[in-house]
Amino acid sequence: MAFVTPFLLFLIVFQYIPIGMLVRNSFFDYTLLRPDDQKFVGLGQFERILADPSVTSTFGVTLLFALGVLVLVVPLGFLVAVFLNGRFPGRSIVRTIVFLPVVTSVAVTSTMWLFMLTKNGGLVNSAITGLGLQPVAFLTSIPWALISIIVMSAWQQIGFAAVLFLTGLQSVPDDVIEAARVDGASRARVIFSIILPLMSRTTLFVVITMTVFSLQAFAPAFLMTSGGPEDSTSLVVYAIYNAAFKLQDPGFASALAVAVMFIALVLSGIQSLFLRTKWSY
Amino acid sequence: MKLTRALAGASILALAATLAACSSDSGGEATADCPDGVTTLTLLRAENNPPKDEFIAQWEKANSCYKIAVDEVPFDQLATKTQLIGSEDGGPDILEVDGPNTQTFAAAGLLLPIDDYLPDGYADEAVAASVAELSYDGKTYSTGMAQTTLGLYYNKTMLDGLGIIPPTTLDDAWTWDEALKVMQQCQVGDAENPDVFGLAPSAFGNGTAGNAYRDMVILRSAGDPTAAKGSSAYNTYWAIAPEGDTVDGYLNTPEAISAAKVYQSMYQGSTKVTSNEGLPNAFADGKACFDLQTSYLAGNLAATPPDFEWGITPVPYITTPIVHTGDVVLAVSSKTEHPEAAAKFAIDLGIGEEGLAWVASNKSFPSITTTDSQFDYLKDPPLSILNDELVEWGQPRPPSTHFVEYDQLVSEGLRDIAFGADPASALNDTVSKVDDALAR
Amino acid sequence: MAVRARRGVFRLSRAAVTVAVIAIVVIAFLLPYLWILSSSFKDQSTIFSDVSPLSWKTFWPTEGSLANYFSTIETKNVGRAMLNSVIIAVLQVIFTLVLGSLAAFGLTRIKFRGSGLLFGLILVTFLVPMEALVVPLYAWMGDLHLRNSLVAVFLPWIASPFALFMLRQAFEEIPTELDEAAYIDGAGPFRVFWSVILPSVRSTVVGCGLVVFLFSWNSFLWPLVVNSSSAQQVIQVAVAQSAAPGQLPNWGETFAGAMIATLPLILIFLFAQRHIVQGLASSGLK
User: Domain B35-142+327-390 - what CATH class?
Assistant: First the structure.
């Protein structure tokens, strides 16, 4: 216990106490400009969340976003890992390149993608119109805007997932694979029936980490789409930032944050249960 | 083991550096010139914004008992930062504020009125739009530094080819109907992806359409300040209730809705002349005939001339001409221990010698009317057109103690209209969101 | 003969697939960087006029200059900000590793009632979005008189659930026989921690440290909010894009700033990549 104490001390002082303050703030109505002028509203802020369809849709958008990122990152990250696990010239260079977006700050990657995806004169649309097709409003039309920020976020995280999967792959014993190959199993079968189940812990870690990251994503909505068009990319943390710093509504922002915490808790709980029962043996 | 040693070494080095960084410089010694020693005033400034270091140094030279320490934040976070630190002791003495936020911070008690420190005759010289924006409850909180306005820039080379000569005086200014026809005529190529846009895609903020500084003037111009007080045309022009407590019946009037349809027609359908998405430099790169842009563009174009001739025509309107004004300004924190010196700095760098020198060096617009010869450039076109607009048509963005919220929500509403949302329902939706915010 | 020919074709097609995948990876992951890098050498007027129509000029500055870099470094106090970021990141890494590894040792080696529940409670903080915590944490740091210092930037995050999670996994992989033998030899728990356990998880510690460094270096909102003075500004804040409405953003400087802020990380990770992979591998994720 003595070894855990310093960690706990800092955790209590710098995480639990502020989280406690956050929960407390969610029962009040006040502004940052007049922090002393607070009004207790009970569960009023939470009622506002449930009553306002534009706020509830924020949660829907965020879940869709998280789902989209998961659907792209997990399989693609795995495939890239399988690919990188093979032998070919320049392997370490390719690995470095895939990992580049992970080390780049999201402010920089968002700016890059903003200009790549912009409708007139963006890199992607220049290529599209070069083929004689009509340009696509990737960032300013529904549903493209949401798709675009999903793809951008997945692009940034694939390297991280791939490295995690790669380490998992390298710890799968060679003799297991050999035995399966001798039994006549195809390459794909080996991957899906032998390797994947052996990597359930990695998969769980990737899935939970990506879920939490996605639920907390902020910069793509802030820098690339400003939540638009018509709130179709209004991620919940962007809504929190807006409520707290732009709309002078920190009590409401706190209530939203408490709701995010709760959802993240439930989701990661379900994910662990599901993935564990399916793949443990 | 090697690793541990290396880490230990690094941590000692880093700690030492932290301690060094923490030891701040204290006030200077008392001298004959400065009986109280040299006092340091802190200024919170937005990155890349005035007052520039050069002019701060000039002021320090003239006021040798004071030093200015500058803290900087990115412009986007200036209001956030001010909200958080403004109400506390030990913060900056002088705050840079985006003009329309002045009333918000003044009402919250963050700022100090500077009326006692203003030079004689200030009231007669000040530009009306500056006074409207920067005073609250009968008190003045800033003089402003430079003033800005909007102009409709045009590519003269292209228009000459079409035989079009845009108006050169305010009296002849185009209406939006006339302007949009010319823009359509001038546009080259497929409307979805033109080689030359009729109107350059917005380069404001992050580049998406809907910026309130620029695009709101189209809606407001559908109103009429000479109509009966309280009438729908009158309210449309002011865009917020005089008490600042509601926008219902101001932003969603029949006039505003029909103006929003005109605005939407610029972005959608067969009439479109511009794009939803910003294209930086479109005008300077020769990819647009027109650009509805800030007066700063004139300075940029003069500094790095494009390979075509350009001109400025007054901003088009629907019923009543109007342009928005305002820029970052300097205000004094209510928590400062040196109100007099801080106010002197804020005023000097605004409309004093140092402030005017910066404005002139930048070929922009002073916040007071002056006959000083360094501003002779304001007498000749094209800058004279911008100056006339500023003086005769200029209005601050709708004055309110909730401008941050107003700006955010109205910009979102206009953006959605540009992207194709139904104008009436988008405006009604915006009105209900803004009213919620105003009530708080 | 037939078999050999088929093998040859198989090999050829495998090579083709490999080349194709490499090509896709390079295009998808490297081109954006090339564009931003080349743009950082261009002047404002050519950055966007080169992009459309798409040509090689997009990725190569024909009249490149270092002007953007010079003006960024000159006006934004980049040297100072870089030093601040290094100090903050290094200290954050050290403290996070010390607290995290001690706690991981306590949780895995010295079993006590409720250690599982405790671990769960710790992980919960991982679920709180940082942006939401800024408001209460800012007020709280004021009460503690900790604002406006480099320490304020990293102190709230050194009890890192993420680091603890990673380290705990690695600690669990070490066979308990190892420390039991040491205890029999008369070593105390701290000695076992220091001389037996830590050396065997070295690569996880290094990998974890690098990830913490990455988080610290790239953080933006918290350092911006908690410190007012330019003397404590960090690099990500210093180079952030910034133009008031009514002013025109300078994209060349923005891109130069982005490169300046990113390059140190890329270099570190180029050299340390092996450690990350090893570190994650030995943390027993599989």
Answer: alpha beta
Count the Cβ atoms, other than its own, within 10 Å of residue C182: 18
Q: List Cβ neighbours of C14 (8 Å cut-off, separation of 6 or more).
A: none
Rounded Cα gap, residues A80 and A102, in angstroms: 15
Chain B neighbors (3+ CB pairs < 8 Å): A, C
In chain C, residues with a C-beta closer than 8 Å to the C-beta of A83 are 21
State whether C37 and C152 are in the same domain.
Answer: no
Domain residue spans in chain B?
35-142+327-390, 150-325+398-438
The answer to whether the CB of C101 falls within 8 A of the CB of C204 is no
What is the per-residue pLDDT across A49-96, written as a single tens digit (0 to 9) for each?
Answer: 999 888 889 999 999 999 999 999 999 999 898 888 877 777 878 888
Distance CA B345, CA C1 (A): 91
- How far CA C286 is from CA of A161, A173, A194, in Å, comes to 13, 11, 13
Rounded to 5°, angle at Cα A95 from A90 and A100 = 125
The residue range of the domain holding A83 is 45-279
Distance CA(B321)–CA(B217), nearest Å, equals: 9
A3 and C129 within 8 Å at the Cβ level: the answer is no
User: Which value, in Å, is the radius of gyration of the alpha carbons in chain C?
Assistant: 25
DSSP state of B252: S
Q: How many independent structural domains does chain A possess?
A: 1
For C216-239, the pLDDT digits (tens) are 998 888 888 888 787 888 988 888
What is the dihedral angle through the alpha carbons of C273, C278, C280, C285, rounded to the nearest 10 degrees? 150
- C224 chain-B contacts, CB cut-off 8 A: 73-74, 77, 81
Q: Which fold has domain B150-325+398-438?
A: D-Maltodextrin-Binding Protein; domain 2 (3.40.190)
For strand B39-46 and strand B94-98, is the pairing parallel, antiparallel, or unpaired? parallel
How do B328-333 and B94-98 pair as beta strands?
antiparallel
The parent domain of residue C216 ranges over 72-282
**A15 to C125: CB separation less than 8 angstroms, yes or no:** yes
